[in-house]
Amino acid sequence: xxxxxxxxxxxxxxxxxxxxxxxxxxxxxxxxxxxxxxxxxxxxxxxxxxxxxxxxxxxxxxxxxxxxxxxxxxxxxxxxxxxxxxxxxxxxxxxxxxxxxxxxxxxxxxxxxxxxxxxxxxxxxxxxxxxxxxxxxxxxxxxxxxxxxxxxxxxxxxxxxxxxxx
Amino acid sequence: xxxxxxxxxxxxxxxxxxxxxxxxxxxxxxxxxxxxxxxxxxxxxxxxxxxxxxxxxxxxxxxxxxxxxxxxxxxxxxxxxxxxxxxxxxxxxxxxxxxxxxxxxxxxxxxxxxxxxxxxxxxxxxxxxxxxxxxxxxxxxxxxxxxxxxxxxxxxxxxxxxxxxxxxxxxxxxxxxxxxxxxxxxxxxxxxxxxxxxxxxxxxxxxxxxxxxxxxxxxxxxxxxxxxxxxxxxxxxxxxxxxxxxxxxxxxxxxxxxxxxxxxxxxxxxxxxxxxxxxxxxxxxxxxxxxxxxxxxxxxxxxxxxxxxxxxxxxxxxxxxxxxxxxxxxxxxxxxxxxxxxxxxxxxxxxxxxxxxxxxxxxxxxxxxxxxxxxxxxxxxxxxxxxxxxxxxxxxxxxxxxxxxxxxxxxxxxxxxxxxxxxxxxxxxxxxxxxxxxxxxxxxxxxx
Lengths: 166, 448
Prior knowledge:
The complex is a heterodimer. In chain A, helix 4 links the parallel strand 2 and strand 3. Chain A has a 4-stranded mixed β-sheet. Chain A starts with a helix and ends with a strand. The N terminus of chain A is likely disordered. Chain A has one domain: CATH 3.30.1330.60. Chain A is an alpha+beta fold. Chain A contains 5 helices and 4 strands; from the N terminus they run ααβαβαβαβ. By secondary structure, chain B is mostly beta strands. Chain B is built from 3 helices and 29 strands. In chain B, a hairpin with a 5-residue loop joins strand 25 and strand 26.
């Protein structure tokens, strides 16, 4: 069982690696998701599935949102599905979901919107069978941008949900 | 961190007799018209002996700075004075003809001395040089350390006598001081006089803090804090005792606090399972009551000055808009209506006069603006100030000036973040003196 999960997640690594190629300027909708049409055999060093590197490279630490939206696009849903599988596997670990916004909103509204985004991620994890008591949400509004700048690209990077272990 | 509001005794004596208070005084400064030439006013160094002469000059410079901040007055340079201010006795009439010839329509002069108990005594007089009469005069006594407040009180008295409206100079500002990289700003609440003096910090910077707001008596500050990292909440800081406590142990985040006009309760937003509504908490019983309900964000509530109504932001339509409702949550009504319905509106703040609501407006792909509207649907919108990002208006106690956060975008860390003020004419804009980058200003009522 353990081996099977890791193998599945290693495949996920390929997808995740493709997805995270620098497409900074792209909007954060799912339209640009890379489809893997061909099996490519790559030797992958096994990564400890409980390591920070695994979470970062295999699970993916972020999902992104469209302007003023908390809708999870297809890519975000697949990221959350990987997390749900992983959380089912490691039932002793809890997760924190942070909701973030770009700077184009007033401070208090963005706190509410960040809360809505964090809960959208949480709700999807719960739908996938994760105990809600294992998920903490927190909104940072526009207080913790991922990148600097006042462009569509920067704003797209900053409208996000971040998943970390608690 | 303990912060005391300095208390002292202000003895105000209207010097009747010498001074008339006639309604037909010729000098009348309008505060509501559009762009008007500032009224030329002479403010002499206050007379004093020895080191008190320096204090007298300092007081005069604060009064001049206050009056010029308003945009309604222009201080005549002392070089243009034709009567030696030192020759002006407390009971003597000035040479009105000489002051008129130096261009002054009004004259402020004063005296500083020391009382037998060590306190300072400051008196001033305001004259109308055209009508050749005294308009108002007060005597203030207090410890020497509060001379700035005495100066601001004098400015308020002059402003009040010449405009017919109360002033806003003996006031404080709380704001969020920002430093560090913009992806990880350290934010601290700071308090200062409205002109940037007597600046000090109220929080240490260990936790991010946002949106401080004064209680009506200026004794308390409600603010949002990540003090409890798992559930950030509204905190209450007592400036007299330095005591801080969390307002309620809610299942979700509480934020966007504002005091009711009577100070007995705090209105705020609670976010529960991703949905944000408006609640009011009685500060004595700590009981809460829900005022809005629905699957959308309702936040940034602000009471009307009589406490009967509440303005707030909601995204129940596609963009955020401003709504008003009764204080019990009934009769919710949208009041922001852009002509082509593309703009979003937020952060309504009711004027202390009750006649206007200040707001933040964003038109997609355009500037941000601070404006005012009446509390009626779609009426009286006027935009007053613009910027790459402006938000969070706060009113002067007389409802004539608005401070707000103002960002000018730059490359990388080059973005400038300051607090600005704009008067209701839209012509008098100022940058408020803060210690470094600043946001989330709140303007206090007049200090009692």
